[in-house]
Amino acid sequence: MKEYSYVTAKREEVKQLPAGRGAASLMFGLKMYTKINVWVYKLSCGKLLNTAMGAYPICIVTLKGKKSCKKIDIPLIHVPYEDKEILVGSLAGMDKNPGWVYSVRVNPEVTITAKRRKLEYHARQICDDEKRELWPHIISIYPPYDRYQARTDRNIPVFLCEPVG
């Protein structure tokens, strides 16, 4: 059981995710909701489905697929930081990274649409020391990230996105 000094939640206090068929059903549900979320968000120009559970603002991240090289849109919790953006590959604390993480590692140029503003960024996965420094800010925006990291041994990847140009 891996623990991170900056994570305040304790694993024994965090509800565990289902395993086996339950995990597969959860993944399927997340994929379907993601597709609907992006479609409605774009169709409504960000007026609808622009928040996640608990009314946390989201952004749409457009990236290039690792294998397909096609544009992919994903909704993520919007975590602004100074003039930058932070992307958190939490997948609710599941034991595997979301697919988009691998794509961003290979193709770090992303477009982030938030609050009806669309900007180009260069994403860089941050090291553990940087993550430790940014963690209080990250969980101030979306507190469940702390429980997600406590839930898994996986070191949840965090990307710092700097504006291009």
Q: Gap between N and C termini, in Å?
A: 42 Å
Order of helices and strands: HEEEEEHEEHHE
Average predicted local confidence, pLDDT: 92
The third-level CATH topology is: Pnp Oxidase, Chain A
Overall tally of structural domains: 1
Work out the radius of gyration: 15 Å
Mind telling me which CATH architecture this is? Roll
Shape estimate: globular
Structure, described:
Strands 1, 2, 3, 4, 5, 6, 7 and 8 form an 8-stranded antiparallel beta sheet that branches. This protein has 165 residues and is α+β, with helices and mostly antiparallel strands. It starts with 20 loop residues before the first helix and ends with a strand. The radius of gyration is 15 Å and the shape is globular. 32% of the residues lie in helices and 28% in strands. It has one domain: Roll (Pnp Oxidase, Chain A). It is built from 4 helices and 8 strands.
